[in-house]
Design goal:
The chain is 49% helix and 16% strand. It is of the alpha/beta class. It has 5 domains: 7-126 and 256-282, MutS, DNA mismatch repair protein, Chain A, domain 3, CATH 1.10.1420; 149-247, MutS, DNA mismatch repair protein, Chain A, domain 3; 289-461, P-loop containing nucleotide triphosphate hydrolases (Rossmann fold, 3-Layer(aba) Sandwich); 611-669, SH3 type barrels; 690-765, 2-Layer Sandwich (Ribosomal Protein S8, Chain: A, domain 1). The strands form 6 sheets. It has a 6-stranded mixed beta sheet with strand order 10-11-12-8-13-14, sandwiched between helices. Strands 18-17-16-15-19 form a 5-stranded antiparallel beta sheet, covered by helices on one side. A 4-stranded antiparallel beta sheet has the order 1-2-4-3.
Length: 766
């Protein structure tokens, strides 16, 4: 099966440059190498597995995961095989990588990351080798003094010998001061010596070196010779022991070399996933939905090589319209659009998230073929046109219904009439094959063909005639104007020459330009109308919000009033019960009939003061009251719910308050009717928690922000992200100024650096 991308399309889409952007996110050269080697695959199962792993890695990275310091150990393993021994410092990157592998194995275990866990668990456990390395090598890359008992003993013997030799030489210097040139102890040829005058030869010293002037002898006294000899022997034994330790470590490393090389492949794969996850987070990239149908829907696609300058591209074609013809003036963005379409399809099938909305839908392709950019073959003496034709002929020979074809400036490079005729024939052939195709052209016959053909989507790149600058937005359904004469006139070409040029056009070409211009005007009018409708809708939304705010305030005031009345009633009841209890006590203590009559008069006076609901309890309902019944406090009192019964007392919830009342004070009542339904306000089925306004004008961005905030409010969300990019900071400032004026915006702030920094604003609604 042919590769998804051939060499020409790989170059046209600049895939290597984009892969380099992703590779920069890797933690090591191992992961970067894996990313650079990624290519789109026609294996659906492989792509879906890679995206499952990427999704898990994104979650792991958000949780703080990093592969740690990884080193490419392959050169060290090759050197170990060739020479059988490595230097002490070579074991530092080996130990760091083995430790990182153990850390990865530990961090990715568990059910939260099943795909990554399965991959990480294939890493071997090199704990024994790691311990042996750290037992012998310290953090500076040197052999530890206590690496082995023998090494420790030899080092101790060397220390003692060195002290004994130095003490012997100090005594010699003290006893032969007249022969001493300089009272210091130094070394020559690995032996301790002292600087003496030339006359000291008579002392029987061993001269190892003479100064350039001949006045100083670096000599070894006879009594120091056996000690120096022993020291040299100890040094030789130390070298042999160190060599033995390194050889042993290297042998252990080679025993595990096959497992370590497999570990390196796994770590490289995990680091490649780590790079893709960090790329996704940095670029707010998404995993698209794949379809087996010839259908492509790009939503807010941002070409990564353009950085913050990228204007989001939205374009959909396929199905009944498998061919999209993109027209418009030169430098209007047609080529960038073609490259974005092909690049994002390639990235997705390479398992790399794309900087676009998650609503993006891409076909699963077997081949992507392109003819984009200028190419002239000097070696084959081919013109640009001939070179393009040779490439297009090869594309046609490979194309089937599972192919995406991208052709830039179709029909250019030759006579316009012949080029247009050839372009029309090629379009008809692509339609016969049934492939997906996106074609850029500025030839009028091709524009008219696209406009008239039911299976071709005609779209154009928007061009601002006032500023003479492209906006890089795709306008579906409307062919683009060439604008050459208009631009020339605006730039100062004399009107006489412009009119003369216009007269050279055929009547058909003039009529076509007039039709296109009329369509452009109608589309602009429709956009203005839509903007006005959105403004009116926003005004209505604000009026509705104000109305609901006032209704809510009235409801709160009503509740407060009822609460006050209920509290007042409760206080009167408590006071009456207290006074009644006192009167009953007085009546029991009264000794005479007159005293009892006085108490009765006071009881009657109390009954007149107590509210009717308490003083005159209604008759009991035929059915005993039960917990959960709706009751009324007195005949005309507030409604409540019976919560509990205790003898002749009841606990009732009235307006959210719990009140204890005599059971006789309660009257059965009907449950309150359901509140009248509020006016229907459609709530969005799905609401994006992030809005991208990069590349929009300030006015259009503010309109989009208002509409988005409205959707968030109606859906019940309180937080969201506005992606405005860094740029000059003007758009960010305008958005912040606008947010300060909105009463329902509780707070807003710039995102932390790892979530976009000053290119993203986090909004909290309240």
């Amino acid at each position: 099966m042919a590769e998804v991308l051939n060499a020409r399309t790989l170059r046209d889409l600049e895939l290597a440059k984009v892969l380099e952007l992703v590779a920069r996110e890797a933690a090591s050269p191992l992961g970067a190498e894996v990313v650079r080697a990624l290519r789109p695959q026609a294996d659906r199962a492989w792509v879906e597995r890679e995206f499952r792993r990427v999704e898990e890695m994104v979650e792991a990275v958000r949780g703080g995961f990093s592969p740690g310091p990884l080193h490419d150990l392959r050169p060290l393993l090759a050197e170990a095989r060739e020479h059988g021994i490595l230097a002490p410092q070579d074991f530092l990157p080996i130990a760091e990588t083995l430790e990182a592998a153990l850390g990865v194995r530990q961090a990715l275990q568990g059910p939260r990351h099943p795909e990554l866990a399965a991959l990480a668990q294939r890493l071997s456990d090199q704990t024994p080798l790691l311990r042996r390395i750290w037992r012998a090598i310290d953090e500076r890359g040197e052999i530890r003094p206590d690496a082995t008992p023998k090494l420790r003993a030899l080092l101790e013997e060397r220390r003692k010998l060195t002290e004994e030799i130095q003490e012997t030489l100090r005594r010699f210097l003290h006893h032969h001061r007249e022969h001493v040139q300089d009272a210091v102890i130094t070394q020559r040829g690995g032996r301790f010596v002292v600087p003496l005058k030339t006359g000291a030869r008579a002392l029987g010293v061993v001269v190892h070196e003479t100064s350039g002037s001949g006045q100083t002898l670096f000599a070894e006294p006879a009594e120091a010779v056996p000690l120096n000899n022993r020291l040299r022997a100890v040094e030789d034994e130390l070298d042999r022991e160190r060599h033995r330790i390194l050889a042993e470590l290297t042998g252990l490393l080679l025993q595990e070399s096959a497992a370590i090389e497999e570990d390196l492949r796994i770590l490289a794969s995990l680091d490649g996933l780590f790079a893709r996850a960090r790329f996704a987070l940095r670029w707010n990239a998404a995993i698209p939905t794949f379809t087996d149908e010839p259908q492509l829907v790009l939503e807010e696609a941002r070409h990564p090589l353009l950085g913050d300058r990228a204007v989001p591209i939205s374009l959909a074609f396929g199905g009944e319209k498998p061919v999209a013809v993109i027209t418009g003036p030169n430098t209007g963005g047609k080529t960038v659009t073609l490259k974005t379409i092909g690049l994002f399809c390639a990235l997705a099938q390479a398992g790399i998230p794309i900087p676009a909305s998650p609503r993006t839908v891409l076909p699963f392709l077997e081949k992507i073929r392109s003819d984009i950019g200028e190419e002239q073959s000097i070696e084959q003496s081919l013109s640009t046109f001939s070179s393009h034709m040779r490439n297009i002929i090869e594309i046609l020979s490979e194309t089937d219904e599972r192919t995406l074809v991208l052709l830039d400036e179709l029909g250019a490079g030759t006579d316009p009439q012949e080029g247009a005729a050839l372009a029309l024939a090629l379009l008809e052939k692509l339609l016969e094959i049934g492939c997906l195709a996106a074609v850029a052209t500025h030839l009028t016959p091709v524009k008219l063909f696209a406009l008239a053909h039911p299976r071709v989507l005609s779209c154009s790149m928007e061009f601002d005639l006032e500023t003479l600058a492209p906006t890089y937005r795709v306008l579906p359904g409307v062919p683009g104007r060439s604008c050459a004469l208009l631009v020339a006139e605006r730039l100062g070409l004399p009107r006489e020459l412009v009119e003369r040029a216009r007269a050279k056009l055929s009547s058909g070409e003039i009529r076509a330009e007039e039709i296109i211009e009329e369509l452009a005007r109608e589309r602009a009018a429709a956009r203005r109308l839509r903007a006005n409708l959105e403004a009116e809708r926003e005004a209505l939304r604000k009026l509705r919000a104000e109305y609901e705010k006032r209704v809510q305030a009235l409801r709160e005031k009503k509740v407060e009033f009822l609460d006050r009345e209920l509290k007042k009633l409760e206080e009167e009841i408590r006071a009456a019960r207290k006074e009644l209890a006192e009167l009953i006590a007085q009546a029991r203590q009264a000794q005479t009939a007159e005293a009892r009559r006085e108490v009765l008069r006071r009881v009657e006076a109390l009954a007149e003061r107590v509210p009717e609901a308490v003083a005159e309890p209604p008759r009991r309902a035929p059915r005993p009251l039960r917990v959960g019944d709706t009751v009324r406090v007195g005949p005309n009192g507030p409604l409540g719910t019976l919560l509990a019964l205790a003898g002749e007392e009841a606990e009732v919830e009235v307006r959210g308050k719990r009140v204890t009342l005599p059971l006789s004070a309660l009257v059965p009542a009907e449950a309150p009717p359901a509140p009248a339904p509020k006016p229907f306000v459609p709530i969005p089925q799905t609401v994006e928690l992030e809005l991208s306004v990069r590349g929009l004008s300030a006015e259009e961005a503010l309109r989009q922000v208002d509409l988005w905030l409205d959707r968030l409010l109606r859906a019940g969300f309180t937080q969201g992200r506005i992606v405005h990019g860094r740029g000059t900071g003007v758009l960010r400032q305008r958005i912040h100024e606008h947010l300060r004026t909105l009463p329902f915006v509780k707070d807003f702030r710039l995102a932390p650096p790892e979530e976009g920094g000053d290119g993203v604003t986090l909004v909290t609604l309240g």
